[in-house]
Structure formats: structure tokens, C-alpha cells
Amino acid sequence: MVLSLAPPALRRLAPVLPVVAIVVLLGLPVAPESNATPADAMSALVVLWAVVHTVRQARRPLTRTAALVLGLPVVGLAVSASGAMTPADAVTGLARYLQVFVLVPVAVVLLVRDRRDARLVLWSLVGLALWEGGVGVHQYLTGTGASYQGAEIRAVGTFGPADVMGMATAVSLGLVAAVGIALGSGARRQRLVATACALALFLPLVVSFSRGSWIATAVACGAQLLTAGPRRAAKTFAVGVAAVVVLVGGVGVGAAVLQERLTSITRIADAPDQSVVDRYSLWAAATDMWRGHPMTGVGLKAFPAYRDGHASVALSSGSDTDAAGWGFRRRPLLSPHNMYLLVLSEEGLLGALTVVGSWLALLVCATRRLRRAGRARDCAVAACGLLLWQYVDYLYADIGGPSTVLTGVCLGLGAWWALARGATTTPAAEAGVR
Questions:
Q1: What is the mean pLDDT of residues 347-359?
Q2: What are the Cα distances from residue 316, in Å, to 184, 267, 285, 330, 335?
Q3: Model pTM greater than 0.70?
Q4: Taking 80 as the threshold, does the pLDDT of residue 268 lie above it?
Q5: How confident is the model over 276-292, as pLDDT tens digits?
Q6: Rounded to an integer, what distance in angstroms lies between the CA atom of residue 306 and that of residue 398?
Q7: Does the pLDDT at position 429 exceed 50?
Q8: What confidence category does residue 320 fall into, taking pLDDT thresholds of 50, 70 and 90?
Q9: Most exposed of 26, 157, 250, 345 (fewest Cβ within 10 Å)?
Q10: How far is CA 349 from the centre of its chain?
Q11: pLDDT value at position 263?
């Protein structure tokens, strides 16, 4: 009754608004050491709402291809959960993986019906990035962020020092979404606004001091630029370089610290810092676990239990976190900080073939659809960019922390473009079908 009295525009957007709510709730401050967030709770409601909405529509929810690709990870996850060390690890690990890689993406595919819905979700990602980026820049300028080289200047947004990658992830995904809209939108005003947002997000991304996010964003945006043609790509690249020069050289945004961080990317093999040494040691430990359990891995959430038996003596006892109002804390290293190696070590070859195979299938299908994007080109370029960013970032990161649910939303957008029936049709045509 309430919905029937709502304005037509609100009624039309009602199915996708819960997905937007997940993104909006990620902007709320996160309680220290919290294992669940409002966004996680909202994601459960979104899954339930997707089921109810699909039943009410009385239509086939997914194509056979979509069901196969999105359901494939369930096989490897179920087998890996059966090998977990404790029932609690099996339940919590399986629930988290299913939430991020199966349930939330499927819900997004079901609730995003056309390119107008997709654009709304993309702009919500841009809005979250601007909010988190604004908070992060304020932390950098006022020295109230996370500790970096003895100064509390690392921008972490509302995610706090316990999830130093949270703001970098949100800002990066928002920047990739903005670049996709700017390159593919047919509306001049929308292109200009998206371009302005992308340029504004350079600064918070820089002061996040996240090397992995820098690399993933450069690769994703570079690939997006290639879809726009050489001339347009060159112009956009020149604008981006000019923005970086102004921020770092003209304004003097942490030039010395930034130069050191950039230089560390090129010398990770010759003179790596302790964080890189730890990462190499964790990668080696994960690979060694897989060699001992090649088919099904050591079991979900079992990496910490097997870590010390496979890691070298170069591995430190944990990572240090410190921030204004937070205090110094020592956090244990509970994962290899590489999603592919985490899947390989805990789920074995079966997990790699099903989970990683599903991700690659999404990217292949999404890229193939680019040729017939038509007026949905902005959604197509953004969705492919989000998938590519995630896959590159997984070379340096894995799931964990409050920002994890954002991965499910972005995979869902990529899956919508790659697999949904309505992704390449016009909203008017879809309305006629319904």
C-alpha cells in the first residue's frame, strides 16, 4: 500500500534501492574490531528482497549461463568447508565466501534491471568514494589518520586503521566507475560531472599510500581508456598526468613520502621493506600449503593454523597499526594478502578452478558484450573496469574487513553486464516485456 502511493520514479527504482543502501551504509563509521557492519546486515536483506522480488515477478531469475557461472564457486567452497578444522570455521568461512562471491552478486543481477538501475549503483559508488575520500584528505591534512612512517597521515576514511585498505578500495572503485561513465556516457553533462569526480578522487587515492590500489587503478583505467580509442585515451591520460603533477608538484601533497612509496614499488625485489618481506613469506607459505594438499587445500579459514609450519623465519609476528584516538596495536598476519594464493592454499585446485574460473568467465563474457553496448556503453566500460580492478587488486589483497561487501556489489554489477538479459536492451524495451 505504501509503495503504491509512492511517486512513479520511486516505484520504478524500488527494486534496486536496497543495493544502493549497501553502498550508502558503507560510509558509516566502523566500530573497532567489529566483525559485522550495517552494510553486511543490509546485504542479507538485499538477498532476501531479491528472492521475494523474483517470486513476485514470476519469471525465470537467471539464464543457464548465469546460473552456471555464478553457482560454480559453490562446488569448491562446499568441499573446502568440509575440510575446515572446526565446524565454526566451516560455517563462518562458507557464509562469508557465499555472501561475497555468490549471494550478493546474484542479488545484484536480479535487482538491477536495466542501464538506469546500473547507473544509479555506479553513481552511488562514486558518491561513497567522494565521501570517504573527503574524510581521508581531512585526516591527511590534520594528521588524524593512520600511522605511516611515524606520522598519522595515512588516509583511511571511516573504515579506521583496522582496515587501512577500506578507503583505498572505495575510492579506487569510485574512480573506476567515474572513468567508465565519463568515457561511455552519451550525455555531455554526465560526462563532465564524472570527469570532475574522477579528478577529485586522485588526491585521496594518493594519500591512501596503497601501492596495490594504485597499480590496480592504473591497470583498470588504462584498459578503460583503450576502449575509447587512441586519441581520446591520449587526451584523458594527459589530463590525469597533469592532475598528478599539480597535486604532487604544485600543491606539494606529501611529495617526499609519496616519492618514497612510489620508489618502493620498483625495488621490491632488490631492497624490499618489512611489509614486502612479510608478503613474500606469506605467499611462499601459501604455495607450500597447496603443495601438501593440492586438490582440496587445507580447508576454509585454516591458513593461520598452518602458517607457522610453512613460513620462513623472515616472517614477522604481525603488522603494526596506530592512529589518532586508536593507540598502537599489533595485528596478526592471518592471510597471504593474495586472494588467488588464499584460494589455492585453502581450497586447492578444485577451488581455483571453480572460484577463480567463475571470475575469469565473468570478465570474458563482459568483454565480449562490449561490442554491442550501444547506449549502455558507460555501464559496460564501468562494469568491465570494476571487474578488472578487482582481479588485479587480488594479486596484493584478499577478502576481509568492513569493505569486503563492496566486492560483492561490484562483482554483481560485472555479472549483470556480462550475463543478464536486460543489460544490452533499452529500458523502454524492458518495460514492454514486463
A1: 94
A2: 46, 20, 13, 11, 13
A3: yes
A4: no
A5: 778 888 899 999 999 99
A6: 18
A7: no
A8: low
A9: 250
A10: 24
A11: 60
Span 99-104, average pLDDT: 96
Residue 293 lies in a domain: yes
Cell of 1: 500500500
* Each residue's pLDDT tens digit, 374-415: 788 899 999 999 999 999 999 988 888 888 999 999 999 999
Give first-to-last CA distance, the chain, whole Å: 21
125 closest CA partner among 363, 365, 385: 385
Does residue 68 belong to any structural domain of this protein? yes
pLDDT at 218 over 80: yes
Distances (CA, A) of 396 to 57, 90, 278, 298: 41, 25, 12, 21
| Closest by Cα among 219, 183, 187, 215 to 198 | 183
Based on the structure, what is the number of domains in the chain?
Answer: 1
Residue 28 located in a structural domain = no
C-alpha span between 39 and 29 (Å, rounded): 11
- Over the chain, what HEC string results? CHHHHCCHHHHHHCCCHHHHHHHHHCCCCCCCCCCCCHHHHHHHHHHHHHHHHHHHHCCCCCCHHHHHHHHHHHHHHHHHHHCCCCHHHHHHHHHHHHHHHHHHHHHHHHHCCCHHHHHHHHHHHHHHHHHHHHHHHHHHHHCCCEEECCEEEECCHHHCHHHHHHHHHHHHHHHHHHHHHHHHCCCHHHHHHHHHHHHHCHHHHHCCCCHHHHHHHHHHHHHHHHHCCHHHHHHHHHHHHHHHHHHHHHCCCCHHHHHHHHHHHHCCCCCCCHHHHHHHHHHHHHHHHHHHCCCCCCCCCCHHHHHHHHCCCCCCCCEEECECCCCCEEECCCCCCCHHHHHHHHHHHHHHHHHHHHHHHHHHHHHHHHHHCHHHHHHHHHHHHHHHHHHHHCCCCCCCCCCHHHHHHHHHHHHHHHHCHHHHCCHHHHHHHC
d(CA 156, CA 292): 38
Cα-based angle 20, 21, 24 (whole degrees, multiple of 5): 90
Under a CB-based contact definition with an 8 Å cutoff, are residues 15 and 53 in contact? yes
Q: Which residue reads 569510485 in cell numbers?
A: 174
Give me the amino acid identity at 42: M
> Among 29, 90, 43, which residue's Cα sits nearest to residue 302?
90
CA 126 → CA 30, 307, 381, distances in Å?
Answer: 20, 38, 15
**Average pLDDT, stretch 71-83?**
92
Q: Does residue 55 belong to any structural domain of this protein?
A: no
